[in-house]
Write a structure and sequence with these properties.
By secondary structure, the chain is an alpha+beta fold. The protein has a single domain, classed as Catalase HpII,  Chain A, domain 1, CATH 2.40.180.10. Helices cover 31% and strands 25% of the residues.
Length: 322
């Protein structure tokens, strides 16, 4: 991560908060979420594509953060929800896998990300999003327009257990023979996909999907299959706004089982920064510019919502020493 990229991250987080609102103590995006725990087990197919420790067939502990889209933690659910998974590896480290219920991101470059945020910025400081400016940007950027159209047509999830989740970025999976395979990851619900009318959520309690999921877990675990989608020559592997052609080969390589709620305090990590670039041997990032930006954005967001080092016991020692 370069100095320039970190500077971009600081600026971008400020711009996102100007557009979506600033809510102290909350993430800049997917502000409202709940934590759960469970386990993941890869099947024999996973080893063909990656030597990563959590893909060798052992049962791996996981935590999962299910979340609303957007930056307002008090808003109603929309038709985008998130699933951030942390795999706790045998060597004491961890790796993250971050997915959305939508298949693509809305921009594919730093320039476009600044552009859409500038266009949507409130006309007056502290005001509402500039929707006219946003629509003008969308009209000038066909890739963004296509994603907006796809998202608008998508149903809201009937519940987290019935939502499929998708990695908007491609990654390189590397096996024991050092063979590289470019993949996108998907969580497919074992219970099957089911949707609901977005209007139903917009008039319901703002906690509805969280409450329904917790109630469902009391009757049994929620499960998703980890499905790989394989790139072929010529497929865009560094563009988060571009789908790969329909019919690309897919293969199931494991299953996650979510069993019960848990809190960040119980986990022992009150920050829980789900940076998708926190990887492990056997999985590498592509040069997707949006993926590369996310490390800095997640780090800035985590620092601002938690108080950073000023909130740590060390801060009291440092202040006393001055």
């Amino acid at each position: 991560m370069t100095i320039t990229q970190f500077q971009d991250a600081e600026e971008l987080v400020g711009k996102i908060r100007a557009v979506l609102g600033k809510f102290a103590g909350y993430r800049v995006l997917h502000a409202d979420g709940r934590m759960f725990h469970g386990s993941f087990r890869a099947n024999d197919a996973a080893r063909k594509y990656s030597r990563a420790a959590h893909l060798q067939g052992d049962e791996i502990p996981v935590t999962v953060r299910l979340s609303k889209g957007g930056g307002d933690p008090f808003a109603h659910f929309g038709n985008t929800v998130g699933m951030a998974t942390r795999f706790y590896l045998p060597n004491g480290r961890f790796t993250n896998l971050v997915m959305l219920s939508q298949e693509l991101f809305v921009v594919n470059s730093l320039q476009q990300l600044h552009g859409i945020l500038d266009a949507a910025a409130p006309v007056e400081a502290g005001g509402h999003m500039n929707k006219e400016g946003l629509m003008a940007f969308v009209a000038k950027n066909p890739n963004t327009a296509a994603v907006f159209k796809m998202r608008a047509a998508a149903q809201a999830p009937a519940g987290f257990s019935f939502a499929a989740f998708h990695g908007v970025h491609a990654f390189k999976w590397i096996n024991a023979e050092r063979k590289e395979t470019i993949v996108r990851c998907h969580w497919e619900p074992v219970a099957g996909r089911r949707g609901r009318d977005l209007k139903e959520l917009s008039s319901a309690d703002t906690e509805i999907l969280f409450n329904e999921f917790s109630q469902a877990l009391a009757a049994g675990p929620a499960e998703w299959d980890l499905v790989l989608e394989f790139a072929e020559d010529g497929d865009p592997v560094n563009d988060a706004t571009a789908l790969w052609p329909a019919g690309r080969r897919r293969e199931t390589v494991g299953r996650i089982r979510v069993t019960a709620p848990i809190t960040e305090a119980e986990i022992g990590d009150t920050v829980m920064n789900h940076d998708p670039t926190v990887l492990t041997d056997g999985i590498e990032a592509t040069d997707d510019p949006i993926l590369q930006l996310r490390r800095g954005i997640y780090e800035v967001s985590a620092a601002t919502r938690t108080g950073g080092w000023h909130a740590c016991p060390f801060a009291r020692i440092a202040e006393t020493a001055q």
